[in-house]
Write a structure and sequence with these properties.
By secondary structure, the chain is α/β, with parallel strands linked by helices. The protein has a single domain, classed as Alpha-Beta Barrel (TIM Barrel), CATH 3.20.20.70. It has 10 helices and 8 strands.
Length: about 200
Amino acid sequence: MESNIILALDVEDREKALKIAGSVSGYVAAYKVGYPLLLNYGVEVIRDVANLGTVIVDIKIADIPDVSRNIARILTDRGATGVIIQGFVGRDVMREVRKEAKNLYVVAEMSHPGNADFISESSEKIAMMAKEEKADGIVAPATHPERISVLKRISGLKVLSPGVGTQGGSYKEAVERGADYLIIGRTITMSSDPKQKIKELLSQR
Ligand code: BMP
């Protein structure tokens, strides 16, 4: 059965990141590359990871439409298959990034407690807008699994869900609530045997 795990490669050392990524090749649906690797090594690091599998770049783009579109183009040119943007910046940003990203993923609601300060009150509107702007998926939290089903129903889109493991969310519950993919980082990258850890997670479904 295909893996539904997206490995968050929040590892600051390139060799370590590539070693982990290589060791779980075939056991993950995609690799998520974010600020830790990009800031240390530049955008070319995307290509290094893309040589091993599908890459989703997560810098949660949140700029004006024109700048956001150009950022998405740069990431796509370097091998990103998916790009994650913040939903709260609005429809025009979604629309412009859509033009350059092969797959567009929109953060509707976040997994950390501060989500409640600003984002949660807009998350359902963001989910609806992501659908209207033909995003490929939304990001919704495994730390509040009930929100996965609500936001999935509203958007009708694939749900990528972070927060399993280290942040307290349950893999099984997130899947039961409709998460299509689980974005998981430290639980796997800090494990002594990343591949075994993934097998354990996948056996819960
Ligand atoms: P970890 O499994 O180590 O907690 O990592 C979760 C990953 O998901 C991180 O890369 C983080 O940037 C991302 N993420 C998150 O944790 N919560 C969100 O709401 C959105 C995210 O992209």
